[in-house]
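Tokens help. Consider this.
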Amino acid sequence: MALDLIAAVPSYQDAAKRLRRARIVLSRTLPDRAQTSLRGHITLGLEPFAGEDKAARVSLAGTLIHEHYHLRQPLLAKTASFWLGAVTRRPLMRRYEAPAYAAQQEFLRALARHAPTLQSTADAEIAQVQAAFVFHYGPDA
């Protein structure tokens, strides 16, 4: 299970505990990979479950870490990101999403160090995460 994978990585045990207590639901119609509501609920789409078992577990674990980051962000961070993007004419949610994408990649690197048998899977997931960020929010300045 993805939460067990998170808990096994040093320094991610607390994140796994918080995620175990979180309200996480699956939506077969969600067009996004996942969403976190202002009420602290995580809704998962089908994308993190795609692929063979090992890849799906790594993908889901990374997605949960990404959403866990959003759970800890200030409530107004999303609004601030939107308006900053509008004023600067940059992608609206870039400022809000960038640290969550970074947290996801940091976790995947830690997972690869902790479980070398998952390194190629984690590396492939990191590449997908980076590509998704660039696609949605543009390359780093």
